[in-house]
From TrEMBL:
<feature type="compositionally biased region" description="Basic and acidic residues">
    <location>
        <begin position="199"/>
        <end position="214"/>
    </location>
</feature>
<dbReference type="InterPro" id="IPR023393">
    <property type="entry name" value="START-like_dom_sf"/>
</dbReference>
<dbReference type="Pfam" id="PF06240">
    <property type="entry name" value="COXG"/>
</dbReference>
<feature type="region of interest" description="Disordered">
    <location>
        <begin position="181"/>
        <end position="214"/>
    </location>
</feature>
<dbReference type="InterPro" id="IPR010419">
    <property type="entry name" value="CO_DH_gsu"/>
</dbReference>
<feature type="compositionally biased region" description="Acidic residues">
    <location>
        <begin position="184"/>
        <end position="198"/>
    </location>
</feature>
<protein>
    <recommendedName>
        <fullName>Carbon monoxide dehydrogenase subunit G</fullName>
    </recommendedName>
</protein>
Length: 214
């Protein structure tokens, strides 16, 4: 199955949107039904242990580039998430692992898999940011192989559910950008100033997803 579309975030810039989308905490907060989204190093992810460890955590999204740089998505990094998604008459909770395959502003690509009872999926996805007259356009696409009970519902049921999740996600990102005053640009300007002065190039490079030698 293939899913794609463009979502426009108003009154913002590519740098500000990239800053927001670099933060796993922001993504966790914006994803509908997401219990947690955390970095993992082990191949065999213990979701029961992760649930117990992160059940009562209280981590807020931020517009501070130094904080985001410390926890930002990393190319090659592996992340675990638990998400409940409404698809037709069912509400499966997927245990999911995602790997960031490519990350360099303005593009990010990822691949992953998830399972929920008698259903599972494998997917690859990507997004690219571009400036528009009113803000930033996010072109996104996902290719997914779906198995089990959910697959039997067909694309006519799955497509609207997937599009609704994406719409709610980007709407939440828009709200978060405004609420955290990322759109004011103060923190981004501070990062850009650090880059220009050379005071802390590492912070800026980590936010933008740059690797050494590029």
């Amino acid at each position: 199955m293939e899913f794609s579309g463009t979502f426009e975030l108003e009154d913002t810039t590519t740098e500000e949107v990239w800053l927001a989308l670099s933060d796993p905490v922001m993504i966790e907060s914006a994803l509908p039904g997401c219990e947690f989204l955390v970095r993992v190093d082990e191949d065999d992810v213990g979701f029961d242990a992760l649930r117990e460890e992160h059940a009562d955590r209280d981590v807020e999204p931020t517009s501070d580039p130094e904080v985001i740089a410390e926890r930002a998505f990393e190319e090659g990094g592996r992340y675990a998430a638990v998400m409940q998604i409404s698809i037709g008459p069912v509400n499966p909770t997927f245990e999911t692992t995602v790997t960031i395959d490519h990350r360099e502003q303005p593009e990010m690509e990822a691949s992953g898999e998830g399972s929920a009872g008698d259903s599972s999926f494998e997917m690859t996805s990507g997004m690219e940011l571009s400036e528009t007259d009113d803000g930033v356009g996010v072109d996104w696409k996902t290719e997914a192989d779906v198995f089990g009970r959910i697959a039997s519902m067909g694309q006519r049921v799955i497509n609207p559910a997937a599009n609704q999740v994406v719409k709610r996600f980007f709407s939440s990102i828009q709200d978060e950008i405004r609420e955290r005053e990322i759109a004011e640009g103060g923190e981004v300007e501070a990062a850009e100033s650090a880059e220009e002065s050379g005071d802390d190039r590492g912070i800026v490079d980590r936010i933008l997803g740059r690797s050494e030698g590029r």
